[in-house]
Amino acid sequence: MGEAAVTAVTTPTETPAVEREVAFDMIRRGLPVLPLLVLVAGIGWGINGALSGAYGVGVVLLNFALAAALLSWAARISVTLLMAAALGGFVLRMGLVLVALTVARHQGWVNMLPLGLTLVITHVGLLAWETRHVSASLAFPGVKPEARP
Question: What is the pTM of this model?
Answer without folding.
Answer: 0.75
